Amino acid sequence: MAKLMLLTLLGLGLALFRDHRASYQTRLNAFREVTPVELPNCNLVKGIETGSEDLEILPNGLAFISSGLKYPGIKSFAPDKPGKILLMDLNEEAPTVLELRVTGSNFDQSSFNPHGISTFTDEDNTVYLLVVNHPDSKSTVELFKFEEEEKSLLHLKTIRHKLLPKYVYISELLAHKIHVYEKHANWTLTPLKSLDFDTLVDNISVDPVTGDLWVGCHPNGMKIFFYDSENPPGSEVIRIQDILTEEPKVTLVYAENGTVLQGSTVASVYKGKLLVGTVFHKALYCEP
Ligand SMILES: *[C@@H]1O[C@H](CO)[C@@H](O)[C@H](O)[C@H]1NC(C)=O
Ligand SMILES: *[C@@H]1O[C@H](CO)[C@@H](O)[C@H](O)[C@H]1NC(C)=O
Ligand SMILES: CC(=O)N[C@H]1CO[C@H](CO)[C@@H](O)[C@@H]1O
């Protein structure tokens, strides 16, 4: 969903403009307060203070985290600093984050404003990172090659298309829905089903081991779009099991009122460990 944020924000703008008050309050879930759901062994990730808008964990436990998003109408704790991609090794005890150096002569780092990220691993195990970037209020997709030894990202090019998996999950933030589509060989999509939630569903991560969906959610959109440090947005994480069956199982795994973690956008798992990212705030790491 991170990638669809632009559309989301446009949609929100239109919604605010066009719809009457009651309707946008419904869409933003404006009166929703969080009922806490606690998890044991959670710690904020040291070194993440300006967002962790999107993240992806490789099958080997290395996590990429995009940080420092600046977006019109959205809070930023470091409006004058470029964004960055962080690396975290979830195999370590008490893992820390490291900023990946960006190399490549044709890439302007001063305007780097990373948003959504995805990885792609080719047959010879080279890992590529696709990053939705918003330099100077534009939108591009940047392709990097991950150089693990050097802890760097080599910028290869700016590209326009991405690969799609067999099933495609799309979250509709302001409608509080997740839609499931099947992707056919001819690249067409057939809608299979939609699930409803009482929270604004943001980015979806699919656990490659179980097929479960992990979703970072905003319980109350009003608190995201009209940031107030006295009454900050909370965080919710939902797990959806068996989504392709008649009876998907939806579990609210984590819920917090913003005292610890504000504005969760994404949640992903590796060997029972859970990493939760936020639009502009911190990141939370929970061990089993
Ligand atoms: C694409 O494939 C699906 C499934 O095989 C089929 O139902 C659909 O008609 C095809 N669409 C086009 C435009 O060929
Ligand atoms: C948020 O939750 C914490 C811990 O449960 C509690 O101490 C605090 O008062 C709550 N804050 C609000 C604004 O409800
Ligand atoms: C619905 C959606 O946009 N999900 C994205 C969440 O982020 C991961 C990792 O970057 C993407 O692979 C998903 O497509």
From TrEMBL:
The positions flagged as active site in the entry are H115
Biological process terms from the Gene Ontology for this record are: response to toxic substance
Q: Catalysed reaction(s)?
A: a phenyl acetate + H2O = a phenol + acetate + H(+); an N-acyl-L-homoserine lactone + H2O = an N-acyl-L-homoserine + H(+)
- Binding positions for Ca(2+) 1 per the UniProt entry: E53, D202, N203
**Top-level taxon of the source organism:** Eukaryota
Keyword hit for Ion transport: no
Q: Which GO terms describe its cellular component?
A: extracellular space
Its keywords, alphabetically, are: Calcium, Disulfide bond, Glycoprotein, Hydrolase, Metal-binding, Signal
Its required cofactor(s), as named, are: Ca(2+)
Post-translational changes noted in the entry: Glycosylated.
In the UniProt record, which residues carry a glycan? N186, N203, N257
> Can you tell me which family this protein belongs to?
Belongs to the paraoxonase family.
Protein name, as recorded? Paraoxonase
Q: State the species of origin.
A: Ursus maritimus (Polar bear)
